[in-house]
Amino acid sequence: MNEKIKLEKTGSSMPSTPDIYDPFDSLRRKNFSDEEYENCFRYFDFQKQGFWTREDFCRFLNALFSNEKRKPYPILSEQIDQYFHETDFNQDKKIDFNEFLQAWKKPIKCAVRPVSALVIVDVQNDFISGSLALHSCPANHEGEEVVPIINQVIRNVNFDVIAYTYDWHPSNHISFYENRHLRKISSKSRVSAAAARVHDKVIFAGSSNLTDTIEQILWPAHCVQNTPGADLHRDLIRIQNAVHVYKGTNPELDSYSAFWDNMKLSKTSLDDQLKERFVTDVYVVGLATDVCVASTATHAVENNYRTVLIEDACRGVSEHAIEVKRIELNQIGCIFVHSDVVPAMVTGEDRRPEIARAIFVENLKTIGRHRPR
Ligand SMILES: [Zn+2]
């Protein structure tokens, strides 16, 4: 094993309680009252000293970050040290109740009772059987394959919010190959309008009220507003009271992400609608993994959602680009999972350490206790 990757020993020092016992259950049932946080604190205070040692703290992290069978997820020893250092505000090598409450109240609540949204990205005919069908792209993926998987996720998982996104372009949209002569190409562009082919990146001159230049990959015309190609796949389950988000509606701007256009000049309504519903966790599915799904997941992380990409419910353009996006997304704290594990994640029984870190740090910043090492 790599010297640096030292895993904390787990299991042997766990409390002798039934395997399935979850010390955070009563906290959830009592609606996260401070009294229940006190009980939780006492539970991990093994010596009954009124504070936690590093060992107690380690047991707490192992119990918090565990799966539905209460098996702890491995956490690096140095990560435990870092969490301990950050939670120990007065640096006395002990965690008292007040430190625990301030640092962990919010992260525990998000982990144990998340408010989860399923964001279904662009499951539209043009990406499945139309002008930009994924099966004609380098990875030769079949976009249609996501439909039964997403339907199963909708049926099996109790999401608090479901959102459908639509690529929704006017016919004169900047991203259309057919429109490449409608706008001035910048002198910085390596490809001229005449020489450009589908999938080439060109640089348009931009317009004075938006930006100097606009980099744009040219796609075949697709998802034109109110055309059959822009409809959701006929078999995709439609949920009543869902959130619907339309993107790429400005003729001069493309929008891969369901949160922002590609230049980050204008927001869609998605973030506000999720915040209104107190969403903490965003699960992203749909088309295409390395384009609109990845961009949506990136912005979900940036907007402070714990973010999960359900891998088997996505199809992409290029295998290489999918791998690159996976690495980038993992680095910023978005995890890739199979749809099988999603039900237990949404109920808060399966609690992943990777998606918890950013909320912990954000909370410390909010209470003015963030002290980077
Ligand atoms: Zn588009």
UniProtKB/TrEMBL annotation:
SMART domains: EFh. Pathway: Cofactor biosynthesis; nicotinate biosynthesis; nicotinate from nicotinamide: step 1/1. Residues 32-67, 75-110 form the EF-hand domain. CDD domains: EFh, nicotinamidase. Pfam families: EF-hand_7, Isochorismatase. It is an enzyme of class 3 (hydrolase). One of its GO terms (molecular function) is calcium ion binding. One of its GO terms (biological process) is pyridine nucleotide biosynthetic process. Keywords: Calcium, Hydrolase, Metal-binding, Pyridine nucleotide biosynthesis. Its EC number is 3.5.1.19. Belongs to the isochorismatase family. This is nicotinamidase.
